[in-house]
What we know:
Largest sheet: 9 strands, mixed
Number of domains: 2
Order of helices and strands: HHHHEHEEHEHEHEHEHEHEHHHHEHHEE
Radius of gyration: 21 Å
CATH architecture of the largest domain: 3-Layer(aba) Sandwich
Amino acid sequence: MNNNNDFDKLRLLRSPNIGPVTYRQLITRFGTAAEALKAIPDLAARGGKRRFSAVSEVSIENEMEATRRAGGSYLFFGDPAYPALLAQLDNAPPAFTYRGNHRLLDRMTVALVGARNASAGACRFARQLALELGREDLAVVSGLARGIDTAAHIGALDSGTIAVIAGGIDVVYPPENEALQGEIAEKGLLIAEAPPGTEPRARHFPYRNRIIAGLSLGTVVVEAAPRSGSLITARLAAEMGREVMAIPGSPLDPRARGCNQLIREGATLVQNAEEIAELIKPFDERMQRTYARQAVEEKAPGEYNYESEAERQAIIDLLGMTYVSVDELVRQSGAPPSVVQLVLLELELAGRLERGAGAKVRMVG
């Protein structure tokens, strides 16, 4: 940990009911994590929670020590080394731990994902494709899962690969990839958003997938069944405005139906590394140049306009158990966007609001 500010950032992030969006809003409003930590008990009380306790300093000290023992380091949003592509996301991780060469984050990157139960032929193809992508000076990003992910990392191990894992930086998953995970930490880059000691659960994988897509100029899917995690990664990439590509497969193989479906829906059919490079390299400069602006925004204190009780209640009355967009709340309430965001922030800190994809929110409990 570099300084007290980083310690406070981690403490803010690990406190209850604070996710990436809430974290960014608090930093924007209060300028520093230390000031945000002072303000959140009052904000939570206004949202309906009488007592709000930030995570203890001892807990953060223990996490930092566990990260150090695992050979990991922290990278925070706003740090010069934070990946520019990932910084463009509204829900970019405020911090993550890593092992390995973080300079790989400066390379042009492409995600290569696919089925866990992939065929031998598809795994061989993915391994060779990753090797050829390295020759095109592209780093390969994947999720260190069984099947296609494993093959992609093996193929790109010597040229540059980034593995995003769903658990903590000190947790090996799946167990059979223990040696590969260690090699990636030595030769490539291993990234984890979850605190050390976190065992991967089903709910963690969509969060991991957004990082895979967010780090990459484009996502290539090799063998995927409909409704698979690989298609979630592809959908997220499309929502981010990144290139989505798929390897076509036999209509007789259920494992190819997801890729064929993607192509029908507009994904680009690709067959080799040269075609992938042609698609994503022209976009590199455009995709990379917004980091400086975002880094300034992260540090700039914003307005902190308290809403009236009537305004707060009018906004709360518009909320229900189904998701609604924040823009729609602004339109229907007639309140300034800063006031709507403040009410939502208070409710979320109180544990009464849940954020969904696409800047949508709903009441819970």
